[in-house]
Write a structure and sequence with these properties.
three-stranded mixed beta sheet; alpha+beta; 5 helices; elongated; single chain; 13 strands
Length: about 220
C-alpha cells in the first residue's frame, strides 16, 4: 500500500487531509560514496590542443585554460593532481540535489504529478580519465563532457504513478481569530502536506512535525 498525505489550511481555517493509495514496490536507494583518489597515468599530450577546454555537464558550461587543468603545452605534459584540484573546486557548481516527485489533488479530485529530477554530482576520477583521453585525441569542438554520478530521488515519478483516487479524508474547523493556534495549525499542515509513505512504511506524526515548544 502506497500512501500520500495531503494537508491544507484555507479560508476559515479548514484543515483537511487526504490519503491516496495504490499497490507498488520501492527500491531502496544507496547514497553516493565519497570521491575516489585519481590514479596518476602518463599521457601522450597531443600537439593540436585548443587554448582552452569547454567543460559541460549537459546543462551548464565552464571554460578552463589548459594551465588550470594541469596541462603544459610546451612540455606536452599533464599533472592529474592539478586537474583534480580544479575539478574539486568545480564540483559544488555541478552538484544538484534533485527534486522529489510531488502530488497535487484539486478540489474536483483531479490528480497532478510533478515529475522528479535525479540528483547529480561530479565524478572527479572518471572526469580525469576522460580528460586524459581528450588530451591524447582532442575532439574538433574542444568540448569535454563531465562524468556525472546520478542518484534517484527519495520519491520518484514512478512511485506516484497509478495513484488515481482519494482513499479517505477528514475535515475539522477552528477559530481563525485565535492567531496563535491558527499559526500552529498552518505550520503543522505545511509539514504534513505531501508526505509520502512507501509500502510497509510507518508514519510518525511526532517525527514528521518535530518538537512542539516555544523554541521550535
Amino acid at each position: 500500500m502506497r500512501l500520500v498525505f495531503v494537508a491544507t489550511a484555507v479560508g476559515f481555517g479548514v484543515a483537511c487531509a487526504a490519503l491516496l493509495a495504490r499497490q507498488s514496490f520501492v527500491t531502496p536507494q544507496n547514497p553516493a560514496g565519497d570521491l575516489r583518489e585519481p590514479l596518476e597515468n602518463s599521457v601522450a599530450v597531443a600537439a593540436n590542443l585548443p587554448e582552452s577546454i569547454l567543460l559541460t555537464d549537459g546543462v551548464k558550461s565552464w571554460r578552463a585554460s589548459l594551465e588550470r587543468l594541469g596541462v603544459n603545452r610546451q612540455a606536452r605534459s599533464f599533472d592529474p593532481n592539478a586537474a583534480k584540484s580544479y575539478l574539486e573546486r568545480l564540483a559544488p557548481l555541478v552538484a544538484y540535489p534533485g527534486v522529489n516527485a510531488s502530488l497535487l489533488v484539486s478540489k474536483d479530485g483531479t490528480i497532478t504529478i510533478t515529475r522528479s529530477q535525479m540528483a547529480r554530482r561530479l565524478d572527479v576520477p572518471r572526469t580525469i580519465e576522460k580528460l586524459q583521453r581528450f588530451l591524447e585525441n582532442p575532439p574538433a569542438d574542444g568540448t569535454l563532457y563531465l562524468a556525472l554520478e546520478k542518484t534517484k530521488p527519495e520519491v520518484s515519478t514512478e512511485d506516484l504513478q497509478g495513484i488515481n483516487g482519494r482513499l479517505a479524508s477528514f475535515t475539522t474547523r477552528f477559530n481563525p481569530g485565535d492567531r496563535a493556534r491558527s499559526h500552529n495549525l498552518r505550520l503543522v499542515a505545511k509539514k504534513l502536506d505531501r508526505t509520502f509513505i512507501p509500502p510497509n512504511g510507518v508514519f510518525s506524526f511526532n517525527e514528521r512535525v518535530g518538537p512542539r515548544d516555544d523554541e521550535s
